[in-house]
């Protein structure tokens, strides 16, 4: 368990550390954004201004909506359902489908009809200062006299009235004048006529332009602007959406489009109805001729056979035969019922109720049945409480037996009468059959002709009825769709979306500086913050010196309480622990201009404030700068002392004038062989003498990345302070101190980060984060730099 707990604690520490790193990265990004807030503000203002001008000069687009209800039997929404014309639907054509109607509405031919009706291939514009605005109402009417298909290319002209009835048309390379109301020719367009349609009293803009576009292009454009869809599969409705830059014009175009669709639908129905009427007329003509021919045959047949009314005679015989057959059937039914009843009554072992109304016309028999049934029911009630041997039961049995005997006798009498009636009816039926068989063959021929006449007459009547129904439906034809929501434009344009564009402009305005900062960070070759410094090199950081705008190169004195003075004091404290009793401090850097002399000079003054004797040695023999920074005249210095054995130490030591306890040894004359002078035995002796004489010796050496002087001087130092300047030192140059430490050429190297910009290129928890400045090492043209956003 202890091992597991230890592991969990270790994981928790790892997770916590990752969170801290992520927070630092976030703070780093926020810090950079805050430092460059003005660029974010400027970029946002510019992008919002561009969005404003885009919205100001972009033609808004509106959506026009309409809804159709379509007759669709599959969905039960047909307008012809439950009407008198449903029977004709099969005759008039196939039932419509919503999906089929959607495809019809999408056809280019239907859109072409709308374009031609509304002359949508001619577009008017109001002339504007920046761009032209489409308009719906103009004081001019333009007619394309030629065929619309004659327009080959889009031509656009500005139109203005120069005099009464005289119009001037101009385009990019053409100017000509035409008279209102008279046709004229335009190349690749055809013959055109312009006329005035509004009075001058109406307040309309004075400058207009118009364009004439090939009709195929217009059809493609408006077909793309029209959206036809079924939003609800459960109902037979179609939603139409048309996009237009002018609300009224879009409503009118969509209204005309729907009208053309309805007209085409009615036209199709009327064509079917006309075709049906034509077919019925041809059939009626043929059937009429055939019926007249049959009637002529019947008339001739009667005249040749001298028949008056054989059909009536035959009808009477047939009716008599049918009546006799019906009576015979009734007698046979009654005989069968009597025989069944007789068999029923002969079973006297278990008396049962007899069905009534067997012979409805025999009243006496029916009364016997009622009496018999009453006795049987009375017997059954007595048996519920008595036995068969009970006198009452036996008495009832005797009565039942007597009534049964009477009933059987009555049935036999009725049966004999019915048998006699049956024989008579059979005899009559035979006589009628013989009479029918005796009808001459002439009558049979007449019947065949009459039957043919009836068939033709029925066909004639059917076709006449259908002709009337079709003619009525032709006049009452309606479209299988109707408008349930007329075209209406939305109040506000759907494009451009103002809120979305402003939001995107603000987003882009923030994104652009952020992207530039990110790209700059990616392609930055200079040290910009402490994290980069730590990731590249493991050399310890002794302190931070922030940027300062103070005049002069010495920024610290006895009474100074400025933030930068406190930073040098903090650096002095850290240095005492780093020296661990030593006193010789070497200052170097990667290249010129990183602030070695500036840091060395101010650190010397800071140490002198502790009432310590401090010597500042200007050993950058190639490019000395401390003397000039202090404003001192150049005199004898280190190079003179080394090459002249007769010169004593007091000749080269001079007051620095920065502080009474800070002395200075100048570089002297620039020698041709600085490295050899530094390696001389006299230099070693000088260092030993100075070590006994001063509490701290600060050696300003050349940049170690350029020459080897600093490596030579490191043998005389107890610690090496390596100056890193923010946004100046190259990242690749940090490999120099790393190699020096690994190879042992210079020991005890520590970084001092100089020129830290506040607040926070290096985080606020390092140093004080206040601004300050210094002169550039060897920078002759030290000009003020602008636009810090574009420099590192």
Automatic annotation (TrEMBL):
Broad class of enzyme this protein falls into: transferase
Domain annotation AAA: ranges: 583-714
Reaction equation(s) it catalyzes: L-tyrosyl-[protein] + ATP = O-phospho-L-tyrosyl-[protein] + ADP + H(+)
Record-level Gene Ontology MF annotations: kinase activity
Domain Polysaccharide chain length determinant N-terminal: 36-115
Organism domain of life: Bacteria
InterPro entries reported in the protein's UniProt record: AAA_dom, Bact_polysacc_biosynth/exp, GNVR, LPS_length_determ_N, P-loop_NTPase, Wzc-like_C
Subcellular location field: Cell inner membrane
Main location per the UniProt record: membrane
Annotated ranges, domain Tyrosine-protein kinase G-rich: 443-522
Keywords: ATP-binding, Cell inner membrane, Cell membrane, Coiled coil, Kinase, Membrane, Nucleotide-binding, Transferase, Transmembrane, Transmembrane helix, Tyrosine-protein kinase
Entry's transmembrane regions: 37-55, 500-519
Annotated membrane topology: Multi-pass membrane protein
EC number: 2.7.10.2
Keyword Kinase: yes
Pfam families: AAA_31, GNVR, Wzz
Chain coiled-coil ranges: 277-304
Protein family (similarity comment): Belongs to the etk/wzc family.
Name of the protein in its database record: non-specific protein-tyrosine kinase
Organism whose genome encodes this protein: Sphingobacterium griseoflavum
């Amino acid at each position: 368990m202890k091992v597991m707990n230890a592991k969990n604690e270790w994981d928790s520490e790892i997770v916590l550390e990752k969170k801290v790193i992520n927070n630092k990265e976030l703070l780093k990004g926020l810090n950079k954004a805050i430092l460059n807030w003005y660029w974010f503000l400027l970029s946002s203002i510019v992008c919002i201004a561009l969005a404003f001008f885009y919205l100001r000069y972009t033609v808004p687009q509106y959506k026009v909506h309409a809804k159709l209800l379509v007759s669709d039997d599959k969905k039960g929404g047909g307008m012809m359902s439950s009407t008198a014309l449903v029977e004709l639907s099969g005759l008039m054509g196939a039932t419509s489908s919503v999906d089929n109607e959607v495809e019809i509405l999408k056809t280019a031919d239907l859109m072409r009809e709308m374009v031609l009706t509304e002359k949508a291939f001619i577009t008017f514009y109001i002339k504007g200062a920046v761009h032209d605005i489409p308009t719906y109402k103009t004081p001019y009417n333009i007619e394309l006299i030629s065929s619309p298909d004659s327009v080959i290319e889009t031509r656009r002209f500005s139109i203005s009235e120069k005099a009464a009835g005289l119009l001037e048309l101009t385009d990019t390379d053409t100017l000509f004048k035409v008279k209102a109301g008279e046709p004229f020719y335009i190349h690749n367009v055809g013959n055109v006529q312009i006329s005035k349609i509004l009075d001058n009293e109406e307040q309309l803009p004075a400058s207009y332009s118009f364009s004439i576009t090939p009709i195929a292009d217009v059809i493609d454009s408006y077909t793309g602007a029209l959206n036809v869809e079924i939003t609800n599969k459960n109902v037979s409705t179609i939603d139409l959406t048309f996009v237009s830059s002018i609300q009224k014009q879009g409503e009118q175009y969509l209204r005309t489009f729907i009208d053309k669709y309805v007209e085409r639908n009615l036209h199709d129905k009327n064509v079917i109805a006309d075709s049906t009427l034509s077919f019925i007329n041809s059939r009626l003509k043929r059937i009429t001729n055939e019926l007249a021919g049959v009637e002529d045959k019947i008339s001739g047949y009667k005249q040749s056979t001298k028949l008056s009314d054989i059909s009536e005679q035959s009808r009477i015989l047939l009716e008599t035969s049918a009546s006799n057959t019906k009576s015979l059937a009734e007698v046979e039914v009654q005989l069968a019922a009597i025989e069944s009843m007789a068999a029923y009554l002969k079973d006297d072992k278990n008396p049962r109720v007899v069905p009534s109304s067997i012979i409805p016309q025999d009243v006496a028999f029916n009364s016997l049945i009622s009496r018999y049934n009453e006795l049987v029911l009375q017997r059954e009630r007595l048996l519920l409480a008595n036995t068969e041997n009970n006198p009452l039961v036996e008495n009832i049995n005797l009565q039942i037996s007597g009534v049964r005997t009477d009933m059987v006798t009555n049935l036999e009498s009725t049966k004999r009468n019915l048998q006699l009636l049956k024989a008579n009816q059979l005899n009559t039926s035979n006589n009628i059959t013989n009479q029918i068989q005796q009808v001459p063959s002439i009558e049979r021929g007449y019947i065949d002709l009459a039957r043919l006449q009836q068939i033709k007459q029925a066909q004639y009547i059917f076709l006449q009825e259908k002709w009337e129904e079709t003619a009525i439906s032709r006049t009452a034809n309606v479209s299988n769709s109707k408008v349930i929501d007329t075209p209406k434009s939305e109040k506000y344009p759907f494009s451009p979306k103002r809120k979305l564009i402003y939001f995107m402009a603000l987003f882009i305005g923030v994104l652009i500086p952020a992207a530039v900062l990110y790209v700059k960070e990616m392609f930055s070759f200079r040290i910009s913050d402490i994290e980069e410094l730590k990731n590249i090199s493991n050399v310890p950081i002794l302190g931070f010196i922030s940027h300062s705008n103070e005049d002069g190169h010495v920024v610290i004195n006895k009474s100074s309480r400025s933030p930068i003075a406190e930073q040098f004091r903090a650096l002095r404290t850290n240095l005492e622990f780093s020296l661990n009793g030593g006193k010789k401090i070497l200052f170097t850097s990667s290249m010129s201009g990183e602030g070695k002399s500036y840091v060395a000079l101010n650190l010397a003054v800071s140490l002198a404030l502790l009432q310590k004797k401090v010597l500042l040695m200007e050993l950058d023999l190639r490019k000395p700068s401390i003397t000039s920074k202090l404003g001192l005249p150049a005199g004898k210095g280190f190079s003179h002392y080394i090459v002249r054995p007769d010169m004593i130490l007091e000749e080269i030591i001079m007051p620095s004038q920065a502080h009474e306890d800070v002395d200075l040894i100048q570089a002297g004359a620039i020698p041709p062989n600085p490295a050899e002078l530094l390696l001389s035995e006299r230099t070693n002796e000088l260092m030993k003498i100075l070590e006994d004489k001063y509490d701290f010796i600060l050696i300003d050496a050349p940049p170690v990345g350029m020459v080897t002087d600093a490596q030579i001087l490191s043998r005389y130092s107890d610690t090496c302070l390596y100056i890193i300047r923010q946004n100046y030192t190259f990242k690749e140059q940090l490999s120099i101190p790393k190699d020096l430490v690994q190879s042992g050429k210079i020991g005890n190297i520590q970084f001092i980060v100089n020129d830290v910009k506040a607040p926070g290129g290096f985080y606020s928890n390092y140093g004080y984060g206040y601004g300050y400045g210094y002169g550039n090492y060897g920078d002759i043209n030290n000009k003020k730099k602008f636009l810090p956003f574009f420099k590192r």
